[in-house]
Design goal:
The protein has 229 residues and is an alpha/beta fold. 33% of the residues lie in helices and 17% in strands. The chain contains seven helices and nine strands, in the order βαβαβαααββαβαβββ. It has a five-stranded mixed beta sheet with strand order 3-2-1-8-9, with helices on one face. The chain has a four-stranded mixed beta sheet with strand order 4-5-6-7. A hairpin with a 3-residue loop joins β4 and β5.
Length: 229
């Protein structure tokens, strides 16, 4: 039986990401991995995370990727000096190091092309997947793409999504928050940003994956330092 896994913010944590996928999830050729964005910045190997996604797709794995605010920042930084400074302050220096360059202009074009192609959201039969959330103050929350990548504080109105469940990342939360959302009745929203890079924060430092059919939550602790050569 095929499984559909939704994975939260990776932020350059390649070793943790690989541990989650290869050791914990072990997806078959018929399973699907949905990634909620923020593949880059902060962690040690942004380039490696993207290359791993490319490798999975070359192996004909079903990997569907959304855009996060950090991908948006990287795209904007090519055209705007102030945006470039914001990118560097948001973990972009680690990202450049992973590419072995000191300037954004030296990052190979194929990575920008890939980011440009990323959609902002995905509507499934029972779920809406998005990086940050939706602006439910609008009559049509799907009209605000900036909110999809940046919004943090919002109240969920399921009727605006045809009573689908909203699954997002972007705002790091302790594991107890996600677990509480999954125990709600009915479930209306699930935050899968376990703050993978924030190993110094209470109950964070996790990369989370949720299986949509069974509501199984897989919690992978950050292993970046533990796996250093």
């Amino acid at each position: 039986m095929e499984k559909n896994w939704v994975i939260g913010d990776v932020h350059g944590c390649l070793k943790t990401f690989r541990r989650l996928v290869e050791d914990r999830l072990q997806p078959s050729s018929t399973d699907t991995l949905y990634l909620l964005g923020d593949y880059i910045n902060k962690g040690p190997d942004s380039k490696g995370v993207i290359d791993y996604i490319f490798a999975l797709q070359r192996e004909k794995r079903r990997v569907i990727t959304l855009m996060g605010n950090h991908e948006e920042m990287m795209l904007s930084a090519r055209r705007d000096v102030s945006a470039e400074q914001r990118l560097l302050k948001a973990g972009g220096r680690q990202m450049l190091q992973s590419f072995g360059v000191d300037k954004l202009a030296n990052v190979p074009q194929r990575y920008f092309d890939w980011m440009e192609s990323l959609p902002s959201y995905l509507v499934l039969q029972k779920y809406v997947l998005v990086h940050a959330g939706l602006n439910f103050s609008l009559a049509n929350p799907f009209s605000d793409e900036r909110a999809m990548r940046w919004i943090r504080d919002f109240s969920v109105y399921p009727e605006a999504m045809a009573n689908r469940v909203l699954i997002h990342g972007h705002t790091p939360v302790g594991l107890e928050v996600t677990q509480s959302q999954l125990s709600a009745n009915p479930i209306t929203v699930v935050n899968l940003d376990g703050g993978c890079v924030y190993t110094d924060r209470p109950n964070q430092g996790h990369l989370l994956a949720l299986e949509l059919g069974s509501w199984t939550l897989v919690v992978q602790k950050n292993v970046e330092e533990a796996m250093q050569e």
